Amino acid sequence: MEETVSKNFIEQIIEKDLAEGHCTAVCTRFPPEPNGYLHIGHAKSILLNYGLAEEYHGKFNMRFDDTNPTKEKEEFVESIKEDIKWLGADWEDRLYFASDYFKRMYEAAVTLIKKGKAFVCDLTAEEIREYRGTLTEPGKDSPYRNRSVEENLDLFEKMKNGEFADGEKVLRAKIDMASPNINMRDPVIYRVAHISHHRTGDQWCIYPMYDFAHPLEDAFEGVTHSICTLEFEDHRPLYDWVVKEVGFECPPKQIEFAKLYLTNVVTGKRYIKKLVEEGIVDGWDDPRLVSIAALRRRGFTPESIKLFVDLCGVSKSNSSVDYAMLEYCIREDLKLKKPRMMAILDPVKLIIDNYPEGQVEYFDVPNNLENEELGSRKVPFSRELYIEREDFMEEPPKKYFRLFPGNEVRLMNAYFVTCVDYKKDEDGRITEIHCTYDPQTRSGSGFTGRKVKGTIHWVSAAQAIPAQVRLYENIIDEEKGVYNEDGSLNLNLNSLTVLKNCLLEPAFAEAKAYDSFQFVRQGYFCVDAKDSKPDALVFNRIVSLKSSFKLPK
Ligand code: ATP
Ligand code: MG
Question: Which parts of the sequence bind L-glutamine (predicted)?
């Protein structure tokens, strides 16, 4: 069969490396810092790395990049593992922690010192910045740059032994203060920090800097292709320098791709954290967020996220994707998999005057007309029903084909009814709608006598199950954009609507956390895993049925 899908640029690099013998088997990794929950952007990176390992029958490692103890927490380690498992990326027995390599990193630093490629520097952070130069001017050598190997070894050991205070000394790579790439101007590779680490406790009071630690972690694990986002492009010469000078025979190769951004959606960990800490959202898994935990709670599926990531593709230039594309993906995934059932979000009572009191009949209703495999269910019908308030109007505008006085509509899967009367309370609010039904229009009877233009859904009052339904909008006010001038977020104050008096057909009784359904004519909804209880169901609207999104050709 001819190949129709063209390879992305990363696949092309990998295939060339394999063909030319630069590596024999592919090994990728996902290296999150455990300082927050993962979001949709991370999902892209996870699925990309995992997908490449699968495609080339290689390995995918999971590694926590926990070299900065100030912001890291065990809580995040657990949530990250759960999210990656849920997405389906399997690291098998290769779960690693950068902190497990602290000793080897220390030894690598000693190797550099012995080669005359690293030195202990006494300049303050401020002075280091001044000496660094600018984009247009070269930097200046540190006065400590020419310390002897012996002195450097001695001082570095003292740093490790806790003989210096935070910031008093650092270890720097000795590269080139005149390099056009500022990252190469004798970067700091170790700092003193007297803080406990969530895994190594007080064993260390020096910690490696990201640009030194990361290439080493990759190299220790035999990672062949270290895939990261574009902001690290300028760091690649340093990455290559570290693995070469420390002396790895098959150094990993860093490849950068563009981050995934969603238009008008908050993805940055820093901002999500702020929303959580300020109590604006209900935790990291608030269904309005795009953290993976939030998407899962809202009712997104791993399949929908995979589809989304595939549609986004892999690129070298930053761009932003419309949230509607994510909605398209979840609709596509749920369309044939989920039952379509009746739920009334804003109920008003409908009474069928000529239907026998106390009688209940059951209609056999297919669960999904497009997928017979989902079977059918029994739906009770009786004299008193509930319908959506918006499906009735006293004085309908033109082209309103639902219920109004004198009009006949189809009650979905049941009978034709004609509105004969209605009642209102003192405030003018409709309290009851009265209809008559025509027994010969029974669904399934093959009745062809006449047609009606409107079909509305309903639930039988006596058997209905109460539920709360939450409707979500973007937490950002899209008209104003994501950020204010001062960097704060432009919040949409109406991002959550809680409907407390919803009524569902009895088939919902078995619904459990994370189960999702199509509510006919409304959208897709998922049982909230945090707040729903068997006798007090809570649903999140995942997405409405309507979409303006068109798949790009
Ligand atoms: P954030 O900027 O949201 O805080 P981060 O980059 O600090 O994220 P890390 O834990 O350092 O988060 O990232 C783990 C991996 O995920 C890195 O390889 C990073 O490049 C990748 N990644 C982070 N954000 C995105 C994104 N929006 N799209 C694709 N990959 C991303
Ligand atoms: Mg980061």
Answer: 65, 210
